[in-house]
Amino acid sequence: xxxxxxxxxxxxxxxxxxxxxxxxxxxxxxxxxxxxxxxxxxxxxxxxxxxxxxxxxxxxxxxxxxxxxxxxxxxxxxxxxxxxxxxxxxxxxxxxxxxxxxxxxxx
Amino acid sequence: xxxxxxxxxxxxxxxxxxxxxxxxxxxxxxxxxxxxxxxxxxxxxxxxxxxxxxxxxxxxxxxxxxxxxxxxxxxxxxxxxxxxxxxxxxxxxxxxxxxxxxxxxxxxxxxxxxxxxxxxxxxxxxxxxx
Lengths: 107, 130
Description:
The structure holds two protein chains of two kinds. Chain A is mainly β. Chain A has no helices and ten strands. Chain A has strands at residues 4-7, 10-13, 19-25, 33-38, 45-49, 53-54, 62-67, 70-75, 85-90, 102-106. Chain A has a six-stranded mixed beta sheet, with no helix packed on it. A four-stranded antiparallel beta sheet of chain A has the order 1-3-8-7, with no helix packed on it. Chain A starts with a strand and ends with a strand. Chain B is globular. Chain B has strands at 3-7, 11-12, 18-25, 35-41, 48-54, 59-61, 69-74, 79-84, 93-106, 111-120, 124-128. Chain B is mainly β. Chain B is 0% helix and 56% strand. At the A-B interface, strand 4 and strand 5 of A face strand 5, strand 9 and strand 10 of B.
């Protein structure tokens, strides 16, 4: 299995801040990296595929980058609705493993 | 409008077999590139990928759970069923089904296909307890 490691596990930020979440794969996954957002008690919401391609309707303050083993999710000008847990997922080979999540909390 | 919904028991006893059904609408599991997957999430923990069935009936399983899982589809009924044998309290989790779709990105020297789960069910919390 390809292991996905996110950092940090949690972070505190304020509305208007920019934040960066990192995801590292245990082997190269080219650009086969997805990002999801999950709020408490809800299903994950699909944000981005191919490391940097936004799903339709996702605000442009979300951006992604990376290839190979190292990836980042950046949220600029954090909004109140962005406080949530974020997961990366590799879709390079099955099992399509997820990272352990990064909880973004309000400072 | 694409929707998925999980159904099944919310309480099972240890050693029992869990059968979950994902009923979906708004897409066809006969369409090339489409699949339905199962993902679970123990309370307060991360997402765990369990299984995936493709439009062509190809099936993939989590290696650590492969011996306990079976995924099947009934495209005419728009349903996907997941069975998990020998349930244990550590299997207590919210179980989600999700649509797998794919997108091809074209560049000057390659056409690369990317899979993702774009629509998810609300999830069903399954507790394992005697």
